Amino acid sequence: MTDTRKPAFLVIGAGAGIGGSTAARFAAGGYHAVLARRSDEEGLAGLIGQIEGAGGTASGTLINASEDGAIEELVERVERDIGPIECALYNLGAQIGNRKLHDTPHKTFELGWRLGCFGVFRLAHAMFPAMVERAKTGRHGTLLVTSATSAVRGNAGQHSHAAAMGGRRMLCQTLNAEFGPQGIHVAHIVVDGSVDAPDTLGKLLGDKYEAYKAAKGHEGVTDPAQIAETYWHLSQQPRNCWTHEVDIRPWTDAAWWNDNPNPEINSTSSGKGFAGPEI
Questions:
Q1: H helix and E strand count, the chain
Q2: Predicted TM-score (pTM) of this structure
Q3: Which residues are within 8 A (CB) of 53 and not within 5 positions of it... i.e. 6 or more apart?
Q4: What distance in Å separates the CA atoms of residue 171 and residue 164, rounded to the nearest whole number?
Q5: Which residues, 6+ apart, have CB-to-CB distance to 33 below 8 Å?
Q6: Average pLDDT of the chain to the nearest whole number
Q7: CA angle at residue 229 from 212 to 277, to 5 degrees?
Q8: Are 25 and 54 spatial neighbours (Cβ–Cβ below 8 Å)?
Q9: Count of structural domains, the chain
Q10: Given a cut of 50, is residue 41 above it in pLDDT?
């Protein structure tokens, strides 16, 4: 039988930046947004309230995605109780801070991998079988994966993060190779610059947050609502023109591969920075 319920858009890592903005965009596009995050029930309720206030539908839950079974149970619950997951966004960060090799305990390194790479594997493992079945009827599925500069460039002090994000990127490529021909679109998005997100950059900088944004200049920090528009576009692409990887940065920032940025521009694209997903 055909499932006539509203399609679900699942966000794992639904903070007030990229995750929350993308949930709002998909809700505006006709999806029921399911927001999952690790903590801050009040913040989660606020995001849901904003979506509903704009005329969309949404629900949310708190989960610890690093726990065994948490992602799998969430996928099962959404498919059973809410609607078919037509698109999902894996937006969990894996940044444990700058740490020298000998200051990185094994468990800390492994946590970065569990959040940054293994979580994407678990989501695909739980979600793709139903997506493949629906694709046979013409309803292709989409997995969007937020990533960071460390996926393509390692830096000192970023052993765990670079390994996790590099693995995330390669995992997306292998998933594409296997499931693209079965109707599932996987897009890896490198956010190569700072994002105006109070849950990540804001907490990191504290009372220096506004001064930092001012120093970056007009539109010098990426707007998560505009990132959400890119994600929406990716999810709506026809099968004969799928984009599998894209990088995003503010117009004033030099790309990570540019070793000679314009000295007149206040650029912080070092590859370590504040880019990337939310926990």
A1: 9, 7
A2: 0.88
A3: none
A4: 10
A5: 8, 9, 11, 23, 24, 26, 27, 51, 56, 57, 58, 59
A6: 88
A7: 50
A8: no
A9: 1
A10: yes
Q: How many CB atoms lie within 10 A of CB 76?
A: 14
Least confident segment among 111-115, 177-181, 212-216, 256-260: 256-260
Classify residue 185: in a domain, yes or no: yes
**Segments of 170-248 assigned E as strands:** 184-191, 245-248
Residue count of the chain, please give it: 279
Cα angle 99, 100, 101 (rounded to 5 degrees) comes to 115
Which CATH number is 219's domain given? 3.40.50.720
DSSP E strands in 158-278: the ranges are 184-191, 245-248
DSSP string, 237-261: --GGG---EEEE--TTSPPTT-SS-
Residues spanned by the domain of 243: 8-248
**pLDDT tens-place string over residues 11-38:** 999 999 999 999 999 999 999 999 999 9
